[in-house]
Structures are given as C-alpha cells and as structure tokens.
C-alpha cells in the first residue's frame, strides 16, 4: 500500500471501539513475525503527562545518540506525529511500509475470525515501523490503563514509568484512583524498575505492592524535585535541588512534575547501561516539543492550546495559566467528549477564566455545545454557544487583549490551530 491506501484502510478499521486485552494484539504480532521481540522498551502509563514525558525521553535519547522510536497517542495535528524516529515524524513512505505488514497480519487473523481494533492496528504499526527502521529501543505510551493496553505486549523492558494517576476512563479502569492504579501497575515486569510521579499514599502503596510482587524496584519522584524559576519564550527554567537549572522547551507550570519524572527516568536508563550523560539530558530537555500541550500561538490575542480533558488535567492547565498570565483576562474556548467529567472541569476553569465559548468536539463522542453551555451557566456569568469550533475561535479572537485558553479535548485542536494561524 501507499500512504493514502494505508490511511483509507486504517480508517475503515476504526469502528470496533475499545476492547482491552492482549490476546488479539499478541496474535496479530505473531502473524507479523513478532517485530517487538528485537526492541528494548520503555513503557509510560498514567492519567496525565504521558505524552510530555515521552517527548522529553525521545529528545534525550536522540541527544545521546540512541536509535529510538517513540509511539504516542492520540495524534493532534496529523497521524504521523504518533510515530517518531528520534524526534522526527516518520515519513509517509515508512508508515505505509509498516502498515502494509500490519494489514497482511490482520488479514491472516481475519481468516480465523479475529479482528483487531483500530488502536491495536495503529500500535502494531509502531512495532513494525521501529523494527523495519532498525531502532533498538522503543518509547511507548499506553493509550489507556496499562495491564491490558496494546503496548503492554512490549518485551525486553528496560523501564516502566507512571505519571500522576487520577480518575479517568472509569468505564474500563474503575471508579477510584486505587483501582485505576492496579491497571497502570500492570506495566511493571520482573526486574524492571518503575519510576513514578508523586502519588497519594494509597496509590503509591498499590504501585509498591506491584513492584514487590514482580521483584522490581519502585522509585518515587519526590514532590518539588524540580521548581520553575521562570517561563521564557524559549521555554521553562527548572531548578533541581542541586546543580544548575535545566531549560525545558515546553511551557506550563505542570511540566515541572513531568520533567522531574523524565529526569529520574533518564538517570535510571543511564544506570541500565544507556549512554546518557547530564549534557544529553540538558540538550534533550531544551529540544523537547509536544504539540497541543500548553502550546502558545498568536500575540493579540494570545492563544494557549492544551488538551486538558479531565479534572486533573484541567487543574494543571489552569494553574499554568494563572502563573504565566497573572492579572490578564482569560477567556476559554472549550469542547469536550460527553463521557468526561465536564462539570468538574467547568467548575475549575471558572476560577481562572472570566467567560466561556462552548463548542462541539468532533466525532460521535463529542458533547453538544448547547449542553456544555447549559452546564457552564452554573459557573460562568458569560457563556456563548458556538457549535463550530472555528467560529468559536473567530468570536474569541475579537478580544485582542485577552488570553484565549483552548481546552477540553485534543480532538479539535488541529482545526482551531489552523484558524488561529490565519488570524495571526
């Protein structure tokens, strides 16, 4: 297949929903020749911050000269950004080559009446791509959970990483942080260290128990391991407890915690034998980029795009806005999926933003803007309903002195970013 054919084929496979479990994924990879077996792996799970940590790790590994591929999801602006070779997206031709192998494996499975989900196919494409391009190492972001997530078939695990755990995806993972943590802890394998962000005592106990059962070390990152000195146009200056500050090429105060996790992960990878120096970490952190996470666009007004899509993420986003723009008027453009805790998100957002433009997030899961607007009226004195996200951006852009916070879901950020680039 060429790239267009690959995209058309994948699009046609995306109606199978979510089906947690590893059996189908393992069967698919077996039909593909098990490309995952030749890769060492770093698996990243958690509720928020996974993609940012992966972006930092991939940048550091590239700075260190390691041949690494990185797989994250979902895409924000284009599918290929989910598949990185070093820190660059793979080419359309490379993706098509990998997808061809995946299709061959899927069609072999179909003869046995087994049909992988769209996420399983996209994940299998990552393993195929990295094997075909000679990567020795794969950085893999769990899509949801951990134990039954498709990436958890990865073998030869060097390190497991867990970012902050909060309540999300309750239909599949449970209603409490502790239940969710048990799923996330499934990425721990025998002898594989776990680096974890600061967690509540109950969640940390779950993770420590999982490590003890696997004969692995649990390495908690202490609260405040890195503190923000300032957020500059080039990025954030982060001060460790000892030594010189690190420049991080990402924005948003919440990235302090993500960077602390990535820093400890890099140190553990160096102990595992990867040639990572402090200089590599500094160069990698400065070069790190992650679209759709506290991404700044425009000047009058300033737009801040962030895929904050659950209460924990919204709190982190709002805290970052308050710290970066003290005293500035902040208006929000929000679209969200209907299965998210949007009432709690609105409640937190209302303490930071003075007004809200409610838009409809795309796709079958998108909450109707009118329903979102009605819920927002309990918290905001100024609510405007604009079902079309582009129209919402146009209306918000009339307030040239304000900061426009675009949030609620990653699903519409590409569309609004294109419009913002026209406005500026």
TrEMBL record:
Q: Pfam families from the entry? A: Mur_ligase_C, Mur_ligase_M
Q: Which GO terms describe its cellular component?
A: cytoplasm
Query: Which residue range or ranges hold the Mur ligase central domain?
Result: 44-188
Q: Which domain of life is it from?
A: Bacteria
Q: Which UniProt keywords apply?
A: ATP-binding, Ligase, Magnesium, Metal-binding, Nucleotide-binding
Repeat as a keyword? no
Enzyme class label: ligase
Q: What is its EC number?
A: 6.3.2.17
* Location of the Mur ligase C-terminal domain: 292-409
What is catalyzed by this enzyme? (6S)-5,6,7,8-tetrahydrofolyl-(gamma-L-Glu)(n) + L-glutamate + ATP = (6S)-5,6,7,8-tetrahydrofolyl-(gamma-L-Glu)(n+1) + ADP + phosphate + H(+)
Matching entries from PANTHER family are given as: DIHYDROFOLATE SYNTHETASE-RELATED, FOLYLPOLYGLUTAMATE SYNTHASE-RELATED
Q: Output the NCBIfam families linked to this UniProt entry.
A: folC
This protein is called tetrahydrofolate synthase
Question: What organism is recorded for this protein?
Answer: Ruminococcus champanellensis (strain DSM 18848 / JCM 17042 / KCTC 15320 / 18P13)
């Amino acid at each position: 297949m060429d790239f267009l054919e690959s995209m058309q084929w994948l699009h046609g496979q995306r109606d199978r929903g979510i089906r947690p479990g590893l059996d189908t994924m393992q069967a698919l990879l077996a039909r593909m020749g098990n490309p995952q077996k030749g890769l060492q792996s770093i698996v990243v799970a958690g509720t928020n911050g996974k993609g940012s940590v992966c972006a930092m790790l991939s940048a550091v590994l590239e700075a260190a000269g390691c041949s690494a591929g990185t797989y994250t999801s979902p895409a924000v602006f284009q599918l290929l950004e989910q598949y990185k070779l070093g820190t660059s997206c793979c080419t359309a031709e490379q993706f098509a080559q990998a997808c061809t192998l995946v299709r061959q494996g899927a069609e072999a499975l179909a003869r046995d009446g087994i049909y992988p989900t769209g996420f399983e196919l996209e994940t299998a494409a990552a393993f195929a791509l990295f094997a075909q391009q000679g990567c020795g190492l794969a950085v893999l972001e769990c899509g949801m959970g951990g134990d039954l997530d498709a990436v958890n078939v990865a073998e030869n695990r060097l390190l497991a990483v867990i970012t902050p755990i909060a309540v999300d995806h309750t239909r599949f993972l449970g209603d409490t942080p502790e239940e969710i943590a048990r799923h996330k802890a499934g990425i721990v394998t025998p002898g594989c260290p776990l680096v974890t962000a600061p967690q509540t005592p109950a969640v940390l106990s779950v993770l420590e128990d999982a490590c003890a059962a696997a004969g692995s070390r649990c390495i908690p990152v202490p609260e405040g391991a890195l503190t923000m000195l300032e957020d500059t146009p080039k990025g954030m200056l982060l001060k460790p407890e000892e030594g010189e500050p690190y420049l991080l090429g990402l924005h948003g105060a919440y990235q302090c915690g993500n960077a602390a996790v990535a820093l400890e992960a890099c140190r553990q990878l160096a102990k595992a034998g990867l040639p990572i120096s402090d200089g590599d970490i500094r160069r990698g952190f400065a070069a790190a980029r992650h679209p759709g996470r506290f991404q700044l666009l425009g000047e009058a007004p300033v737009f801040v795009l962030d895929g904050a899509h659950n209460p924990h993420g919204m709190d982190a986003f709002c805290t970052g806005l308050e710290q970066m723009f003290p005293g500035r008027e902040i208006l929000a453009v929000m679209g969200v999926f209907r299965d998210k805790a949007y009432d709690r998100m609105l409640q937190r957002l209302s303490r930071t933003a003075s007004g809200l433009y409610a838009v409809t997030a795309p796709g079958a899961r998108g909450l109707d803007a009118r329903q979102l607007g009605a819920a927002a009226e309990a918290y905001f004195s100024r609510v405007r309903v604009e079902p079309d996200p582009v129209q919402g951006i146009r209306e918000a852009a009339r307030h040239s002195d304000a900061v426009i916070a675009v949030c609620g879901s990653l699903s519409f950020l590409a569309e609004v970013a294109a419009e913002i680039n026209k406005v500026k």
